User: Fold Biopolymer transporter ExbD from Hankyongella ginsenosidimutans.
Amino acid sequence: MGMSVGPAEGDVPPEMNTTPLIDVMLVLLIIFLINIPVQTHAVKLDLPQQANDQPAEPPKPPVIHKVTIDFLDNIYFDGNLVDLNTLTGYFQRAAAQDDQPEFHVRPEAQTRFETVNKVLASAQRSGVTKIGFIGNEVYAN
Assistant:
């Protein structure tokens, strides 16, 4: 029986254990990061100042006019039967106001497109900017 006292000829020489070295390096890195002064980047903003101590009054609800067009091509302005020229006059008066009222157009299901188009063209020529359709859910099916 033979006994081996030294490393064999094909063995790799032992390496130094680097784990404690890496641990010390990480501890030093954390110490340096803690000791670095914190730099704050501040941006100066000129915020608006409130003129008085009164809270701002809530906005008043807009004036809403309903324009209904039935299947017989009759035009109703706030429930009153009107012709296209009278409706154009209402549109022009509304467009001249600083705070324009809203116009809600509600055509019935069997209304001809030509009549609705005339109403919308009249509103556009008059300068009305707040106009929309209501009751579109009846056309979903």
The longest strand covers residues 64-69. Helices lie at 19-35, 84-96, 113-126. Residues 64-139 form a domain with the Nucleotidyltransferase; domain 5 fold (CATH 3.30.420).
